[in-house]
Amino acid sequence: MTISRRVVLAGGLAAAVTACSSGGSDRGGGTSSTATTTTSPGTGSILGDDGTPISDLPRSPRFTAEDFDALGTCVMTPEQTAGPFPLDEQFLRTDITEGVAGTPLRLGFRVTGMAGGACSPTYPASVEVWHADATGDYSAFTDGGGGKDEAEGTTFLRGTQQATNDGIVQFETVYPGWYTGRAVHVHVRVHLGGELALTTQVYFDPDVTAKVYEAEPYAEFGLPDTSWDGDAIAGDPKADGTALALTRTDTGVTGLINLGIPI
Fold first, then answer.
1. Is residue 2 part of a domain?
2. Quick one: which of 68, 154, 219, 239 could link to 139 by a disulfide (CB 3.0–4.6 Å)?
3. Which candidate, 66, 113, 98, 122, places its Cα nearest to that of 171?
4. CATH number for position 196
5. Which of these ranges, 27-36, 88-97, 137-146, has the smallest mean pLDDT?
6. What pLDDT score does 124 carry?
7. What would the 3-class secondary structure string for the chain be?
8. What mean pLDDT is reported for the chain?
9. Higher-confidence residue: 54 or 133?
10. Residue 49 lies in a domain
11. What is the number of domains present in the chain?
12. Is residue 98 part of a domain?
């Protein structure tokens, strides 16, 4: 099955995955010969590129707790589908760009445990992210269309970081592109002690996106064809606490969000 690289069956990801697993590929599932594509990382320690447990590796500089306190949000983050294109393999790194073109994005998460309506930093935790590049292409998978379609063996715009004692991680990446049927988003999974604690997606303010997309390489593709309201997965990002707090800077964009998980 071959579908345009900028098309995804937003309301039928499960059906797309089923179709692709029988020999085809599209934006709802995809295939890769380099890693399994189950949506759960399984049990055991998450390992860095050299096989060392993440908990034993040095941590990169982080945002501060004050940055996240200023957001004024403390809600339970809803579960959302892992698709398209999760991997079991983890890539321990802060900079996930691998030289991919786009507006720089400094992305920060704080993992908070929620009990009795109160939030507190959760440690040890690690956060995994993956997202499309400026052309709407994900690494590691063939999505079966023309144009840019880097596939097996690529790992751009994927990474995992261990949280600090304040529950904070950060990534250096680029502003995501879009593809048909979805609002602009980043996929997120939170791991606690090697177990999957949260699978969700976070979203970008359309007004900020419109400004970013005025420049190349985004301008070639125009504005997204799907709003938050039109996205079958997004729900209500502002009410659900899945909308990033975005700030445009001289060098790019900063996006921050609190992730609430039950404890």
1. no
2. 154
3. 98
4. 2.60.130.10
5. 27-36
6. 84
7. CCCCCCECCCCCHHHHHHHHHCCCCCCCCCECCCCCCCCCCCCCCCECCCCCEHHHCCCCCCCCHHHHHCCCCCCCCCCCCCCCCCCCCCCECCECCCCCCCCEEEEEEEEEEEECCEEEECCCCEEEEECCCCCCCCCCCECCCCCCCCCCCCCCCEEEEECCCCCEEEEEEECCCCCECCCCEEEEEEEECCEEEEEEEEECCHHHHHHHCCCCCCHHHCCCCCCCCCCCCCCCHHHHCCECEEEECCCCEEEEEEEEEEC
8. 78
9. 133
10. yes
11. 1
12. yes
Classify the phi-psi angles of 15: left when phi > 0, otherwise alpha if psi is within -120 to 50, otherwise beta. Answer: alpha
Q: Which two tokens stand for residue 23?
A: 């020999």
> Exposure string (b/e) for 170-190, b if CB count within 10 Å is 16 or more?
bbbbbbbbbbbbbbbbbbbbb
pTM given for the model? 0.79
Where do we find the tokens 């993956």?
130
Vertex 119: Cα angle to 131 and 240 (nearest 5): 45
Can you give the residue range of the structural domain that contains 174? Answer: 13-262
Beta bridge partners of 161: 127
CA torsion through residues 114, 77, 129, 42, sign: positive
Highest mean predicted confidence (pLDDT) among 21-30, 31-40, 59-68, 230-239: 230-239
The pLDDT of residue 72: 85
Rounded average pLDDT over 26-43 = 33
The residues facing 53 across adjacent strands are 47
Q: Is residue 172 part of a domain?
A: yes
